[in-house]
Design brief:
The chain is an alpha+beta fold. It is 45% helix and 14% strand. The relative contact order is 0.23.
Length: 116
């Protein structure tokens, strides 16, 4: 449910494929040695005073989720390990971080650019 809530908050209005990719980023982080090793700790991670996901900071993660959001999470779990190894995603029209924009892009889906 927590993953579905984050998918909803981060990818509302994005194509279904983008929702699956957001869920995959969470799973890729859990599998990576560079991030916390549980879904909850990866979602709520805070580094140098900054949350990993803006819906955690602004409270949007506390909203609901749709059946499609949950289906996207389940698909990401079923196909775990796919998704081009993306560990990050952002909307290039809304992000001004030089650091995230310096990451290697893997795929663009809807308004999100995924990167590793």
């Amino acid at each position: 449910e927590l993953m579905a809530k984050l998918v909803h908050a981060e990818a509302k209005g994005e194509p279904y494929e983008g929702k699956v990719a957001v869920a995959t980023v969470i799973l890729n982080r859990v599998d990576s040695n560079d991030f916390p090793d549980t879904v909850k700790s990866a979602i709520y991670q805070k580094v140098n005073g900054h949350y990993a996901f803006s819906p955690v900071k602004n409270g949007a993660i506390n909203g609901g989720y749709t059946e499609e959001d949950m289906r996207a999470v389940n698909e990401a779990i079923a196909f775990r390990g796919q998704g081009n190894g993306s560990l990050y995603f952002y909307n290039p029209d809304k992000v001004s971080s030089d650091w995230v924009q310096s990451r290697e892009a893997t795929v663009k889906i809807g308004d999100h650019l995924f990167a590793k």
